[in-house]
Each structure stands twice: as C-alpha cells, then as structure tokens.
Amino acid sequence: MSRVNVPFRTMGVDIGSSMSKCVVLDGGKEVTASAVCQGGTGTSGPEKSVRDALDSIGLDLTDMAYIVATGYGRNAFKSANRTYSELSCHARGAVYLCPGVRTVIDVGGQDCKAMRLTANGELDGFSMNDKCAAGTGRFLEVMARVLEVGLSELGSHGLRARNVVEITSTCTVFAETEVISQLSNGADKSALIAGIHRSVAVKAAGVAKRLGVVEPVFFSGGVSRSEGVIQALSCELGLSIRTDPRAQLAGAIGAAVLACEKLRSGQAAVNSE
Predict the structure, then answer these.
(1) Which of 79, 105, 184, 229 has the smallest number of CB atoms closer than 10 Å to its CB?
(2) What is the pTM of this model?
(3) Alpha-carbon span 64 to 13, nearest angstrom
(4) Phi/psi of residue 2, nearest 5 degrees
(5) CA–CA gap between residue 216 and residue 57 (Å, rounded)
(6) CB 182 within 8 A of CB 147
(7) What DSSP assignment string belongs to 112-132?
C-alpha cells in the first residue's frame, strides 16, 4: 500500500477481562479499522483483535506509528509502545465519541465504573463497583443462558414487557437462582428480562451517584449496546443518556488518541531541538 500522503496511524488495544478491542486511528481523527473479539487477558483474544483490525485494511503492525495498550491485560501486550490506565483511555474515548460529555458510565464484562470529566475533557474523579459481577456484562450473560435467550436478543425481549418482575438478589449466583424460581412459577420471560435490565441499571446508577452525576452523560462499554439497559438507566437517573454504536470501543479509541498525542509531543520535542 502506498504511503504517499497517508497520515500517520496509531493503534489502541483495550484488553479486558472477557473481550479484546482494537482500533486504528488515522491522523488522530478517523477510525479506519476496528475489531472486537471474544477473549480477554491471558487468551488469544488480544492478538486476534489486532490481526482482524489490520487485515481489514491490508496493513500490519509495522505500519503503526505508535501503539498504546489499556485494560486489565495491557502490561502483557508486548507490541505496545506505552500503556495507559483504562480510566484515562475510556475518558478520552468518550470525549472523542461525545464531545462535551461530563459523566461517563462504563459497564463492561466484569466491572462498572463512572468517570467525571472537566469541561475540558480531563478526568476529574471516578467511582467503581466492588468485585462482584452483578450489574455487569457477565451478569447479563448468565441471565441470558438461564432464560435461553441470545445475549443480543435480551434488549428486544425486555422492551416488550408490560410489567417488570423485580430481581431482588444483589449477587449473580443468587439472582440466577431467583430467576429460575420465577420461571418455575410461571413469570413472564419479557417481564423478567425487564427486571434484569433494571437490576443492572440500579447498580450502574449507584456507582455514578456516588461520584456525582453531571450532564451530559455518556454510556460506554459492551453493555451500552443494550437498549433495555439504556432505557432503565435513563429512568433510574432521571435524565437522558447518550451513547454511540462504537461505545464498546471507547477504551481502544481513547488509547489510539493518546498514542497520537504522545507521538505528536515527541515530534514537537524533536523539532524544538
């Protein structure tokens, strides 16, 4: 591929607990390739996400000017030029996707976190859930299996509910038992799913409220793809929630943006000598 008049490219790799995401950013502006793969730190997921993203545009790692890794497995990704915390990367990615955002709620596979940003988009504080998987993507995966519904179908099922069956257990294991019991008693599946969505929203809203919610609010992470959770979270917080089809990639996008900034600062330093 010709490199004439091609802007420099940076890569962001977000290695989570259960998923790996990769983004290629051209000139610090345009996302030209991305991939999301099953399998996080300690698996082949990170390498596969990188390979899939690069293959989609016919490039390889040597075409990347700078690479930043983030997430749980960032220190194990040896191709990275630098690592940044997931908080920094998710904040920067949210600003890229939603300029002017002041609160970011990120719900991933194993955790939930909220970040407050300054008017300039800088991280100003954060709050995280405890180590329990309740209220995370893992919780939704368990519930989908129990209900025999595809994970991607939970949202549409929940939105059809005429009422909500509350899930009172705060532990994923106990909630699973509770849902099984409700099913055996003839509870409507859609109403149960609506209750599951509300359970996730209540926990995410609690994390955000501990921090202090400032609008506008952006919802990122894999769970942001669930329209049912978005609606439940909006209701729980009493305000409109913004998101983006690429919100699951927020951490990787932020890493690629930070890679661009690091590269430019290095070039500026060289030019000033």
Answers:
(1) 184
(2) 0.88
(3) 12
(4) -65, 140
(5) 34
(6) no
(7) EEEEEE-TTS-EEEEEE--S-
Q: How far is CA 134 from the centre of its chain?
A: 16
Q: Environment class of residue 271 by beta-carbon count within 10 Å: exposed (0-12), middle (13-18) or buried (19+)?
A: exposed
**Edge to edge, what strands does the sheet with 9-15 contain?**
30-38, 19-26, 9-15, 66-70, 82-83
Farthest CA pair distance, the chain: 75
Q: Locate 216 and state its tokens.
A: 């506008």
Q: Whole-angstrom Cα distance, residue 237 to residue 208?
A: 9
| Exposure of 171 in the CB half-sphere (CA atoms within 13 A) | 3
- Type of residue found at 7: P
Q: Which two tokens stand for residue 10?
A: 């940076």
**Type of residue at 50:** V
CA atoms within 13 A on the CB side of 251: 30
Peptide bond into 245 cis (omega under 30): no
4-29, pLDDT tens digit by residue?
A: 455 689 999 999 888 999 999 998 89
Instruction: Identify the structural domains of the chain with CATH numbers, from first to last.
Output: 9-91+249-272 (3.30.420.40), 100-243 (3.30.420.40)
Mean pLDDT of 221-241: 92
Sorted by sequence, the CB contacts under 8 Å of residue 265 that are 6+ apart come out as: none
d(CA 145, CA 166): 18
Q: Do residues 20 and 14 make contact, with C-beta atoms less than 8 angstroms apart?
A: yes
